Amino acid sequence: MPDSEDFILETRGLTKEFKGFTAVDDVNLKVRRHHIHALIGPNGAGKTTVFNLLTKFLIPTRGTITVNGRDITATKPAEISRMGMIRSFQISAVFPHMTARENVRVALQRKLGTSFHFWKPVSSLNSLNARAEELLHMVGLDHFADAVAGDMPYGRKRALEIATTLALEPELMLLDEPTQGMGREDVERITQLIRKVSAQRTILMVEHNLGVVSTLCDRITVLQRGAILTEGDYATVSADPRVKEAYMGKAA
After folding, report:
1. Which value, to the nearest 10 degrees, does the dihedral of the CA atoms of residues 228, 230, 231, 236 take?
2. Would you call 120 exposed, middle or buried from its count of C-beta atoms within 10 A (0-12, 13-18, 19+)?
């Protein structure tokens, strides 16, 4: 049996109710350290609500959340990020009027704790350029360093968002629909990028593209109506008739 220290993130009885509607129902989730773990399920299954609970954008009605054995159920979102748990969103969250390099520098500045030193000259940030360019290289954006983020192709914006996430040196990355709205070429690029950046990190992702899930994920949790339907590797969950029924509306 795995030791509890093998799990970086755990929830126990995690529940969220909205005026009588149960969006997340008694979810017991365990995310193993250095794994890529997916949350999947049909629309309305509660995947994004679980993410919002984990990152404290929502407060649980009941249940507990622990990270590295520490109870974070009542912890504020900013403190969660300082603990090394960083989330990306379904919609690309970059500063559109800044260059790719400047976006990454902002994230690096936050890590240094100098985010609010407004009186310092812009040139004081030049010391961060080398690390920013390392991160841009890591995500395949070498040639986009001086590109304005708002003008970049959608898939490249998502890669930039991953670079800014990496700038915060996360131990646990939560990726919310990282390939949503992408064509095949961008999906393949982001899939390869996620695999690359997962080294020595843990990734929990919500993902609708089962091809991506089957390629990347060590473990999959299937949600239906806010509750865990089943868990396992891709071969196990894809063969489960309950999963087929949840996605297709009838047993296969």
Report:
1. -160
2. exposed
Rounded CA-CA distance 49/43 in Å is 12
| Planar angle of CA 227, 182, 236, nearest 5 degrees | 40
Q: Which of 118, 135, 169 is the last residue of a domain?
A: 169
Which domain covers residue 100, as residue numbers? 95-169
| Last-in-domain residue among 150, 169, 188 | 169
**Residue 36 · residue 194 · CB < 8 Å:** yes
User: Within 13 Å and on the Cβ side, how many CA atoms surround 32?
Assistant: 13
Q: What predicted TM-score, i.e. pTM, was given to this entire model?
A: 0.87
Asked if residue 186 and residue 69 are part of one domain, the reply reads yes
pLDDT of 72-131, one tens digit each? 999 988 888 888 898 876 545 688 999 999 999 888 887 565 544 544 555 556 678 889
CB within 8 Å of 10: residues ≥ 6 apart: 4, 28, 29, 30, 31, 65, 66
Pairing assessment for the beta strands 202-206 and 172-176 based on DSSP bridges: parallel
Q: Which two tokens stand for residue 105?
A: 């520098």
SS3 content of the chain, % helix, strand, coil (to 5): 40, 25, 35
Q: What's the pLDDT score for residue 119?
A: 46
